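Dear H.,

Thanks for agreeing to be a second pair of eyes. The structure we're designing against is below in token form, covering all 415 positions.
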């Protein structure tokens, strides 16, 4: 008899986990209060970045903390009103920037993300939707070598783990790749093996339909609690009652910690509040995501136009969006593409990216509660990590045993 598995969360991570479980023969039910892919999965920059193994907290990050707190235009901002609440998370974040810890984090991320493009391609090929991914690389822009120096350690770490990086020396070399670039950037880093999604929400919807095609069910329902009995998880409680399961996977993104807290599980999960704005007719043509390194905002060509996405703001799950953070994205666009048209821009979007202080997601079984599994906390790498996470977790749950060690991702690392 097949295992009955309830996956809590219909974001791209939960859907990829469900897809792999259904393909392996499990009876899968995905539950979410909202439609598939309608949360953070719909609003991301679309980047598929298998080489992004450098954690947010790199050596020297302590020097950047005052800027995070005081500069509202910084790439990563913690508003003073939220600083006290964020202090324990921030302390863990700084502690994770020790060189030995950074090396271990990068090793774990490399193992998880290394085959991300292949894993996405495998799902989309079966669903007849390979048109959703573009494999034309990504381009990062720096003003000069001095500007690049602040990120050099991160790039060296990525290269150490196999990321292919091609330097473009001078504005002319950059324009040979992206002719519409008119900003004052004289050093480009082209990542030919990275890719992107041309419509992240449609991609999530395709995977959701694939779960149904494989015999699973994707249903809108608000999950209120993890149901337990006899010291193990036995399903979830919804507003309609008990949804029984042999195994439960919590993949509820930034909302996952709330579900787990009543079980005595305390996870330092914060929301990386990210923003985007869509330009249906920007008047420029890009072949790939372009990332001006000033604030690392992504300028991504998509089916519906040009998406400006990025910035990281901490402010919790309840506070309203900060219009100033979204407006910064126009500044990032103008620095690289001053001729771009912004008239007709669609409304600002804000979403909650689940962020842990060491940049590693929580993946695997919860030792204290048999039958309970986790798949959340991918931060800004949710789309990238979704497909390989699905492969890894399905094998860990149903076999054969995966080659990768799940220990670095264990919930228990937080004590």
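And this is the sequence the design step returned. I haven't edited it by hand at all.
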């Amino acid at each position: 008899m097949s295992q009955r598995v309830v996956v809590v969360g219909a974001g791209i991570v939960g859907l990829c986990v469900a897809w792999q479980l259904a393909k392996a023969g499990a009876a899968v039910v995905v539950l979410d209060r909202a439609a598939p892919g309608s949360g953070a999965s719909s609003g991301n920059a679309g980047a598929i970045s298998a080489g992004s193994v450098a954690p947010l907290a790199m050596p020297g990050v302590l020097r950047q903390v005052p800027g995070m707190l005081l500069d509202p235009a910084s790439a990563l901002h913690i508003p003073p009103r939220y600083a006290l609440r964020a202090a324990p998370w921030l302390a863990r974040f700084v502690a994770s920037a020790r060189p030995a810890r950074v090396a271990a984090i990068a090793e774990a991320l490399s193992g998880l993300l290394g085959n991300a493009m292949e894993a996405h391609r495998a799902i989309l090929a079966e669903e007849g939707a390979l048109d959703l991914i573009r494999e034309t690389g990504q381009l990062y822009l720096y003003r000069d070598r001095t500007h690049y120096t602040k990120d050099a350690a991160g790039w060296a770490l990525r290269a150490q783990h196999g990321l292919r990086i091609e330097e473009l020396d001078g504005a002319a070399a950059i324009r040979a790749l992206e002719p519409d670039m008119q900003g004052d950037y004289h050093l480009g880093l082209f990542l030919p093996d990275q890719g992107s999604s041309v419509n992240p929400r449609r991609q999530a919807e395709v995977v959701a339909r694939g779960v149904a095609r494989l015999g699973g069910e994707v249903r809108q329902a608000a999950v209120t609690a993890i149901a337990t009995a006899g010291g193990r998880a036995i399903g979830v409680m919804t507003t309609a009652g008990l949804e029984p399961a042999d195994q439960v996977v919590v993949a509820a993104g930034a909302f996952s910690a709330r579900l787990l807290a009543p079980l005595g599980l305390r996870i330092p999960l914060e929301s990386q509040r990210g923003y985007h704005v869509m330009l249906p007719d920007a008047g420029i043509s890009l072949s790939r995501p372009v990332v001006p390194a000033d604030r690392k905002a992504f300028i991504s060509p998509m089916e519906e136009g040009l998406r400006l996405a990025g910035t990281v703001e901490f402010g919790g799950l309840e506070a309203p969006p900060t219009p100033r953070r979204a407006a910064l994205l126009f500044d990032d666009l103008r620095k690289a593409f001053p001729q771009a048209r912004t008239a007709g821009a669609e409304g600002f979007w804000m979403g909650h990216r689940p962020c842990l202080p060491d940049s590693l997601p929580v993946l695997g079984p919860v030792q204290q509660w048999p039958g309970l599994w986790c798949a959340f906390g991918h931060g800004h790498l949710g789309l990238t990590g979704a497909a390989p996470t699905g492969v890894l977790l399905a094998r860990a749950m149903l076999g054969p045993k995966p080659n990768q060690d799940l220990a670095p991702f264990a919930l228990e690392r937080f004590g």
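Two observations from my side: The chain has one domain: 4-414. The chain is about 35% helix and 25% strand.

Warmly,
E.
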